User: What shape does this take?
Amino acid sequence: MADYSNHFSCLLDVGYPEHAVRALDLFTALSNENAAEDPPSDGFLLSVQLEHGGTQLWMRDDGTGDPEHVIQFVKRCAKEFGLTGLWGMQYAKTCSKPHVDGFGGGAHVLDLATGETLDWIYTDGWLAIVLDGGDHNA
Assistant: This one.
């Protein structure tokens, strides 16, 4: 049996060390909500990067993780701390054994001020569209 995983590592600058501390509380609340889901999604690890002034949050997988969970967390932080500008992440989908369609990935870009998705790509969907004769720029 093959094991599928999502891998990622990304940063979010929340502006002030006090915001980073508060973000840990937001993370705990989101993780508790996630744990109540059936089934719970894969979460992610979070830490404050002190070498960057204590304002950077480092989000990464713990063997596997849920990129959507990260996106929801970033949206909460952006709203809570009045963040602006663009933020993005990319991720890789891997498989423990070679399987057709077992590998891929994607990327997601948010406007922090509005919480809106500006653009995204998921390579599995993109590849299927192109191979089916669809628009490769879609």
Notes: The mean pLDDT is 91.
